[in-house]
Amino acid sequence: MPEIFTHPDCRVRPAALSDEAALGELDRATWSTLHAVAPRPQPPYAPFFDGRHRPEDFLVAEAQDTAGEMRPAGYIRLIPPTPLACNTHVRQIQGLAVADWARGRGVARALLRAAFAAARGEGANRMTLRVLGHNTPARALYESEGFVVEGVLPGEFFLDGRYVDDVLMGRSLAP
């Protein structure tokens, strides 16, 4: 499968149906109210890929694990935010996860940069995302990659006994 982005510690490629089990496991292992608004997944687990979450919507970062084997270290989901023709110039990040063992190695940054390249390749010139207000590490990463806050929905979610803001961020994909 062709790489679309390389970084010193990982390579990013389009997801394949064969990634189903690894990405499902990664998704469950990284679940946290820091970024998730849905309840913690419980067995029997739903498939990672389904009609709304197709392999072609995901990019996968592979990196060497502690045993020296290359395996999925993270993923990003990138989709058009609506099915409207007037909105085809925008892509939206609707999920980004990095395995604990791969954190601090630039995997999330590599996934973002690969998403920028992939979106540009599809003719997009703008990217958006939503992030929980208390997710300071993610917000700092997004800001360092050119995203700015474009809106806030105060107290949009009730998580772990408190109200949490939903922060809308966006950036241009112009070179």
From TrEMBL:
Residues 10-174 form the N-acetyltransferase domain. It comes from the Bacteria. Keywords: Acyltransferase, Transferase. Gene3D superfamilies: 3.40.630.30. SUPFAM superfamilies: Acyl-CoA N-acyltransferases (Nat). InterPro entries: Acyl_CoA_acyltransferase, Bact_Acetyltransf, GNAT_dom. The keyword Acyltransferase applies. Pfam families: Acetyltransf_1 (PF00583). PANTHER family: AMINOALKYLPHOSPHONATE N-ACETYLTRANSFERASE-RELATED-RELATED. This is N-acetyltransferase. It comes from Streptomyces gelaticus.
